[in-house]
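Tutorial handout. Part one gives the primary structure; part two gives the three-dimensional structure as tokens.
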Amino acid sequence: MRDKVRNTVDMLASDGDVVEVRALADGATHSGYFDDYEALARAAEALDADPAVAGIYVTLNAVTPALLARRANRIKMRLSRKDATTADADILRRRWLPVDIDPVRPSGVSSTDAEHAAALNAAERIAAYLAEQGFPAPLRADSGNGAHLLYRIDLPNDDAATEVVRGALATLDTFFSNDVITVDTANHNAARIWKLYGTLSRKGDNTSERPHRRAKILSAPEEMEVVPAERLRHLAGILPKEEPAAPRRKTGIDLASWLLDHGIAVRSTRPYQGGTLYVLDECPFSSAHKDGAFAIQFANGAVFAGCHHATCGGGAQRWPELRGMYEPKKRRPGVRKQEMVSETRETEETSNPPPAPDNYRERALAILQHGDPLAFLLDTFNREHVGDRTVAECLVLSLASQSVENTNGLHVSISGNSGKGKSHACTTMLKQIPAEYRLAGTVSNKALYYNNGLQPGTVFLFDDVSLSDDLQEVLKAATANFRVSIQHQTVTADRKLQVCSIPERCVWWLAKVEDAGDDQVANRMLTVWIDDSLEQDERVLRHMKEREAREDGGDGDDPELPVCRAIWGILKEERLHVSIPYARRVQFSTTTNRRNPGILFDLIKASALLHRFQREEYDGGIRANRDDFAAASRIYAAINGEAGGQETKMTKNEAAALATVAQMGWEQFTIKMLQEALGLSYHQTYRILHGYASRGTTYSGLLEKCPAVGFSDTMVTEDLEGYAVRRREHLFSFDRNVYQHWARGAAVWIDEGGSGDRDDGPGPCNIAAELPQDSSTGCNNQTAGEGAGSDSTCTDREMRLSLSTKVQQNTHTVPGIGSGVGECAGVCDIRNAGNVPKIPSSGGANMNRAPIHPHLGGIACCDALKTGAKGGGVPQESLSGVLDHREFSRVRVEIGRCDVCGAGKAVYHSREALTKLCEGCYARLVREWNKEGGVR
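Part two.
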């Protein structure tokens, strides 16, 4: 017990701080002041042994050092009236925001197991909410009867800070206290004492139903981050402190009756600022969460409504919006007839925009018939949004799939780090769609069914929101029944059956930091990553500078947007069956997920539909050709490689973590090791490995997704200043062979069977490259200008053999995220210091370049290796004078100290650079490579 007490004081106080220990016994108070924490632990142990002591507490905030002289490093038993304890004025500075969650129970008794569990569960909900508000991870603790959350703050001890803490606790009490648990709002004063973890809590008698329990720390982050002061002030200010101005006209609204009349369930009510606060049972503003919504009617009749979630306004006034959702619009009295006509015309023009002028439609038809519509749409997209070409292609083909008769539809899930452009990419592409076919924002669980204005072929964009369980079920039903409308049966207020529906052929776009959460949802979607590399950051910054330098501001709509809308208007008039004549010969390197082959075929069909006026027709449909396969397989390879996790369902951070472990050559590693190599926080790294739960949705981590990663909870012994210290540690194992097999990607190609299928397009392997003939490459490489005939082709089997055969000369190694290494025979120049394939210049077809192989998606043979490696890719050339981590190998013998830092034990060695590195320096080297050209 003494060790636990000492650990608690070390976490709550800074070295040298004076701490008061106060014990409450039957009718008596014992107290002492300590700057010797060993003496404190011994004193607490003695107090804990006294059965008359109900609880032992300590001061949380920094105490004036002069108070040590009251009772220096000792406990005085049974204080008299003249013996003072710590007062608010004795606190130097506030260091903790204390959140105490108590179960509702009779006073003077311990909690039951069920009451205790309810408090612990409420603490998790509160911690999740505060994380959404921008709070760092707290110290989580069990008080013995309830739950504690402690957040590190740094505020002066003044009236303003007291009001902030008081307001923050009042907000939490308002939204989380109920008939089962309460958030204690009395903890706002600076001198508040707090349960000393490690000691026993004795309330009432110790019975089997209501036992005495020992308070303990449940978890704590490795480093306690300070809550930003503005986040505290925002939390304290979510509820209005002053009543709004009274309405100019008496509305006669009684809020309680209005909520009842409109079927809005109320979870609880309480007095507030002379009026009444109603906590709503479900949030009417968003489907991403259920809790959080509230409405207040003040004494003067004014009404305030809102939601405490940051993604839902964070306390902004939303009463007009709430009222508009449930009340039909009424004509305002006293408005002149001319104004009413103008207002009606404006409303009609907004809801029914005029059709595109004929010249827009003519241009759109010309592009569809003779141009490259995909390139036109993507170029328009990239004039506003820099990069993310694969993301844009997925969105475009998702739209095109709506007009394909025989498809299950293509839905898109975009993930990536916050602030890297997910939302901007989606909204930029959304501008190209006619207004009547797009819906963005938040909706409640069943709102889509009741929206009578939805058109077949609408796009639903859910931007950075968590889909509720009910809304995920709607998504699964809509995607499983893409070609027909889906219905929802309900009962009206007068008990009559009402059938509502979502129209057919609607596609869903999700933009979120993490994956969709639900495996069934993720399996139905194109899983693509936003580009969050340093190079992309630089491109975006240059684009912003160029835009801001323009004299017109650069914020107007692109002049080609009306043409884009006209293109989609024309294509939405189509409903065609698309056949794939060569479908029987399409081969997949893996079919573990049975939905993915269907996704490839739907990509091919969508590409054909986009070029429908350029494809061979038959009665009732069109035929997809080899160009469609090349486009689809290129996207399929990208979302199974460097731009997505289609097969593995990994997020980009998860792929980077596995890549780093593989590059480091670890067979076993800890969270701290991986954290240092990735440059992320401990909490982020923990979530990557273990996953996490948020607002009712469970997000899987690598332990669940990747079979190559194992886990054990071990005890390790360390020598600390002559003492053997044992501690628990999470130890992870990594099987490189299993990883390479699991994350090898999903390559696709066409077997050349000579069946005479009508599949207009290029031949099987017409390689236009000026390369020497070499039997080891598996291809007879000729230039396109030398009459390449049958001798200039190779069978698919030969090409696959050439890619898998180890060639001793004229080869290079391609480090990849998934497969680790691959061999590219006779294709790339090994003299290239960065191991980068030659890239053709714009001057002619006979420039030296990596050959294009249509079997593997019409991509370069070197790139074909990347389709076999999860997220694989050729790294950027190392900077001059910087060590290349790929030249190093791990050694198991003593080789001395690190040549860089001179302190660490060297465990990596490079024969080329004649350099030895320790674990830390090698990790920094890998991290720098990741920042420059690797996956983040």
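Part three, for discussion. Residues 330-356, 760-881 have pLDDT under 50 and may be disordered. The two ends are 44 Å apart (CA to CA).
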